Amino acid sequence: MTAVNDRLDVAANIVAIPAKAPAWQRGYARRLVVLDALGVLLAVGLAQWLRFGGLTGEVTTSPYLDYPVVSAALVVVWTLALTINHSRSPRVIGSGVEEYRRVWLGTLAVFGGVAIFSMLFKLEIARGYLMIALPAGIAILVLIRWLARQVVVQARRKHGRCITRVLVVGSASAVRDLTSSLARDPRSAYEVVGACIPGPAPRTQIDVPGVGAIPTFGDESNVVGAVTATSSNAVAVTATERLDGRGIRDLSWELEKLDIDLLVAPGVVDIAGPRLQMRPVAGLPLIHVEKPQYHGAKRFQKRLFDIMFSSSVLLVGLPVLGIVALAVKLTSRGPVFYKQERIGLDGQPFQMIKFRTMVDGADKLVGNLAALNESDGGVLFKIRQDPRVTSVGRILRKYSIDELPQFINVLKRDMSVVGPRPPLASEVKTYDDYARRRLLVRPGITGLWQISGRSDLTWEDSVRLDLFYVENWSMISDLLIAIKTVKAILSHTGAY
């Protein structure tokens, strides 16, 4: 996720007051209805074909069942379940993990219902039929949703379509923060096109670093006029002392007449959607921020995932490990593996294992190359064309093959498959209380830093992404990060 996320979900901190969705979202949701129906039909048809050898004819396993009829009923119920579970709601489609989660829950509800119905009425539906339809359906539906997102992302990047134009109401600093957060994710559906700044100080624009100038249109009393001038689809109210609860309510009534969304950004940064719960108390919509979860069942699930994933990679990749070890040994002097002290969970040191990609004794040469350090912030040490890297090492680094032995660290409980970047002891000495929270979970072989630029990231961005993961990690986000890591490795982004 995202995000994970934010990167897994950059709009997670925006709470929407329901209104009619923009035209592109409504059209996108309608097309998903057709695509979902086709996906479900394909999965059920595949299950019947593989289990019974045909789509029509006599394929009964019980005197009470006719499987063409069963398949037709399953397609209808499955498609309806996706609708009932709001898997195509404009609030979740196009970004974040919530859309996939609803597809998953809707599918499980259907097959759970089929199992209960079959047991109660002793229908004896073929288990092989269901065991094919369930995983095939989930895989096809998730693939369809992912492909649909790619079409939308390309439309945003190349043609500027499928964008929700947003007018921001709030202080200048809040406008900058929200604009920067939305611009940070190129997949975001929101684009800030103007602002209304409460207060008497006149200004014509707000300069946002890395984005540009955002034009302003007076104060909060001119929101309706600003919406018309900017052709906005939504208004986002950020932290401001001059617009109270009653003012927001009055504004919502005005925007309702214009069919414009009203979004409220509560100013809670780097908190993912699952940790935000809307709870009405005494007629007030309070946002409850759940505490980060580092223990209990979630930690057990993460450890189980680490063991299964690492064991599978090491077993399947054993021939590759042997070939790489031989290549490293034959092309340069020194050991095959490189061990380096890193800092893990709760600040405990451990020896991280990698294939050696540099000349033997490369650590002793750091002082001579300090002037070539390209890392922003001065904490990390990175050189794009590092002269210490061997010819084989460059290939291993390009495809992250040198990191395969770290799965041994995962089995030893030193690391996790997904987590913050494992820091050096010298880096940890420079940490403030803010950065030290990275040590609350085990460091990972991959993480948000890996899928968001790797070595191209600045120190500040690396810390921010790691802390976002620490504060919001979940098994769904771990799975998405693991999948996106494959894409990052194949694109070679930030690998040097």
Tags for this entry?
16 helices; globular; alpha/beta; disordered N terminus; 496 residues; Rossmann fold; two-stranded antiparallel sheet
> From the alpha-carbon coordinates, what is the Rg to the nearest angstrom?
26 Å
Helix content: 40-55%
Task: Enumerate how many helices there are, as a single number.
Answer: 16
Strand content: 5-15%
Structural write-up:
The protein contains 16 helices and 13 strands. By secondary structure, the protein is an alpha/beta fold. The protein has three domains: 17-157, no CATH class; 163-289, Rossmann fold, CATH 3.40.50; 297-363 and 372-491, no CATH class. The strands form five sheets. Strands 1-7-6-2-3 form a five-stranded mixed sheet, with helices on both faces. Strands 4-5 form a two-stranded antiparallel ribbon. A hairpin with a 3-residue loop joins β4 (205-208) and β5.
Summary, kept brief:
The protein starts with 14 loop residues before the first strand and ends in a 5-residue tail after the last helix. The protein has helices spanning 23-52, 67-84, 98-121, 127-159, 172-184, 223-230, 245-257, 297-316, 318-331, 391-398, 406-411, 425-428, 433-436, 448-451, 459-472, 475-491; strands spanning 15-17, 164-169, 190-196, 205-208, 212-215, 234-237, 261-264, 276-281, 284-289, 337-343, 349-355, 416-418, 444-446.
List the helices and strands and how they pair.
Elements: E1 15-17, H1 23-52, H2 67-84, H3 98-121, H4 127-159, E2 164-169, H5 172-184, E3 190-196, E4 205-208, E5 212-215, H6 223-230, E6 234-237, H7 245-257, E7 261-264, E8 276-281, E9 284-289, H8 297-316, H9 318-331, E10 337-343, E11 349-355, H10 391-398, H11 406-411, E12 416-418, H12 425-428, H13 433-436, E13 444-446, H14 448-451, H15 459-472, H16 475-491
Parallel strand pairs: 2-3, 2-6, 6-7, 12-13
Antiparallel strand pairs: 1-7, 4-5, 8-9, 10-11
